[in-house]
Amino acid sequence: MRYVEGNRPTLLRNGEQYFPSLAAALDGAREEIFLETYLYADDETGSLITDALARAAARGVSVRLLIDGFGARDFAPRFRAILREAGAQVLVFRPKVSPWTFHRNRLRRMHRKLACVDGRLAFVGGINVIDDYDSPGDTTPRHDYAVRIEGPLTAEVRDVAARLWSRVALTARGAHPLPPAPAAAAPFADGQRAALVIRDSVRHRSDIEDAYLELIESAREEILIASAYFFPGRRFRHALVSAAARGVRVVLLLQGRVEYVLPHFASRALFGSLLAAGIRIEEYRHSFLHAKVAVFDCCQACVGSSNIDPYSLLLAREANVFVDDARFAAELRASLEVAIRTGARSLPPQEWQRRPLWRRALNWISYGIARLLIGFASYERYH
Question: What is d(CA 367, CA 211) in angstroms, rounded to the nearest whole number?
Fold first, then answer.
């Protein structure tokens, strides 16, 4: 990781805090906006962000919206018309999605959720453009996070967004040169160190996983990880077990509700060995967990779009921000502790070992199917 000094990161929890902050930033834009999202729903939140983007484009701001061809395949035609009329540009990352295509390239999605305004204000996290209460019958919002960034790191967010936009634009309609980047923001004298870490399939294939492993291996007191989808590879599991063996308190806050059947049951085949190593597993059941965050030794924190699973770590384009600041880490840790205390259920190792035989069989059959699918995608190293 390459940390940049002098930033001001602000933790945002759920859409309740994220979308008003994002909309205000879009309304304050004067030069350019880059926005990337995996999902873009035709709901109240989608309307809020679309209207803010259209207002910006109408007053002369260069607006570039990049959506994923699978996650946002149902992007509302009315949104597209509103943005086109205002002068905003919309591109789709890998728009051709066929249910009959099983090549692994079909799984190479743009899973990032980031925005950059005028090269001076950025947002990175796990929150899509979708209502918090999207799940039918749910009265509790999805649990998720983003980080608002001011300072020099915003130039890096702008750079990665501009490079991906140029690449997609070249494929979609031929070369379309970008204007020069705005002047970089000056560092704050009292700012914090932060690093943007991305994952792609060219130069940054394992950067996010490597960043996690570096912090896990250097942890001395506590590791707290929240991940919506948790299916770690062998290196990641061994790093967690080794940390627990040297006395580090390792806590995993994981999805307790069934959202996707195969990953849910397959991941549980790994729980026995983790629990036996002294790792604490908390299943979040209060609502759907969508967070992808971590805190290490109460002084370093991570907020981003990457889950701890093969899709995020080996296939998708992801973006995480790592913050080296005790105050920011303490705020995130406190929020996760509240989630554990009020909405999670701990898995006692003894109870887990006494599961019915049919439930164990279901976990291992699901695990076997998942491993076959990973092998089919030619990622045999991910054990």
Answer: 26
Task: Report the candidate in 341, 347, 336, 337 with the shortest Cα–Cα distance to residue 144.
Answer: 336
Q: Is 118 annotated in the active site?
A: yes
Q: CA dihedral defined by 219, 222, 228, 231, rounded to 10 degrees?
A: 50
What does the pLDDT profile of the chain (383 residues) look like in tens digits?
Answer: 899 999 999 999 999 999 999 999 999 999 999 999 999 999 999 999 999 999 999 999 999 999 999 999 999 999 999 999 999 999 999 987 665 555 556 678 999 999 999 999 999 999 999 999 866 566 788 999 999 999 999 999 999 999 999 999 988 776 567 888 888 889 999 999 999 999 998 889 999 999 999 999 999 999 999 999 998 989 999 999 999 999 999 999 999 887 777 777 778 888 889 999 999 999 999 999 999 999 999 899 999 999 998 888 888 999 999 999 999 999 999 999 999 999 999 999 887 777 777 777 777 777 777 767 666 554 544 44
Indicate which residue of 200, 264, 292, 324 is catalytic: 292
Catalytic residue among 68, 143, 264, 290: 290
**DSSP state, residue 129:** B
In the chain the domains, ranked by start, together with CATH numbers, are 4-173 (3.30.870.10), 195-376 (3.30.870.10)
Q: Is 96 a catalytic residue?
A: no
Active site residue 286: no
290 is catalytic: yes
